[in-house]
Amino acid sequence: MKEIEMKYGRGTMKALIEEKNVMEVIRSNTVKQDKTEDEIISDALHNPIDSKRLKDIVNEGETVCVIISDVTRSWQKPYKFLYKIVEELNAGGVKDEDITFLSALGTHRKQTKEEHEKLLGGELSKRFKVYDHDCFDEKGMVHLGDTSHGTPIIVNKKAVECDHVVLTGAIIYHFLVGWSGGKKSILPGISSFKTISMNHSLSLNEGLGSGMRDNVRSGNVEGNIVHDDMMQAAAMVKPSFMFNVIMGPDGNIANAVAGNYITAHAAGRKLVDNIDGVNIKKKADIVIATAGGYPKDINLYQSIKTLMNAKEAMVDGGTMIILTQCSEGIGEIKDIKDMILNYDNMLDREKELRERYTISKYVGYFFCDIAEKCKLILVSEINPDLLKKTKIILSKTLEEALEIAYDGDKNRTISLMYNGANTLPRLV
């Protein structure tokens, strides 16, 4: 027998499994890096991909909008690289008063002054003000045109009225657009609620009852209509430069890319694959995955990345065991609660999602849909009453969850995911 120990909340959970049944142990790849974070950032800025250096793109008297992520993405360590971007702009002749920092909130809430300081760091926060994008502020936006998919591209005026737009952020796997970063600073980052909703609704096939598009998933841009729609939006804004970081398993900046927002992002996607893309030889009957403990498993909403990644390692109709404590239940976002609590069948959930699409509704829909298509067991403290209209199975311990998963057959193959929120299994 083999004892496994996986993160759960602020602690761990243990269980015994037959070692012969373990087919794959899926972890992020080891990162070998002999450079400091500062050196990585500088190297990327000094050696941009398919682009001049930022200081050679801008000129004195020109205005620049630097789009930054919001505080929910503070793990990107923006204070480490934003001051270097400002140094490049200043070296190109751009004065501080001609630089605007615009936080790409998408549909997220406004931020506090303290949160702005956390993003910019002590020195920059004294020199610059951060403007929060408001997706409902119609007067503060401009309509640039429509994409070939019919999405009206309505974006923040502060960006398009500047001579240059600089995109910043990080590239990680994203369950709708394949990878985050790059164009996502524009859509959803600085777009109107209408634009965001119409773009994200492309994740569904045409026609009620047809469910989600297969090509709209983590680690894929080929045939991904959501990605293509975002790229068309970015082309209308015409970013002058992009800088994105890639994080390592230790939470530090492991790599960075800069330059052309299309080709530099493509190079960044490969770097993410090298770290978090894990090749597997075969899919397992049972996948056991942890969200990674607190705060990644603070509520059900935050656990969606683990669910979507674990799905890629499981045979069709198999079993997933997701360790997610959910000390704060489903999450405080009303839409995910509505999707889980107010409907008892997938057709009605899909109808509601199509009529009033939001990401949080999509998350609720996805959890319920997966539970319809496979055996989904959550090792969690979530109140069972919250999930009574779904087919999600709840368990208090990993050992109990395994007994449910085996269902009398202890020869079932098992794959283990210790970094479920980050690693994407890829069948080779």
From TrEMBL:
Residue ranges annotated for the Lactate racemase C-terminal domain, each copy included: 281-420
Residue ranges of domain LarA-like N-terminal in the record: 8-205
Pfam families (alphabetical): Lar_N, LarA_C
Gene3D superfamilies according to UniProt: 3.40.50.11440, 3.90.226.30
Stored NCBIfam families: Ni_dep_LarA
Protein name according to UniProt: Nickel-dependent lactate racemase
Organism field: Clostridium algifaecis
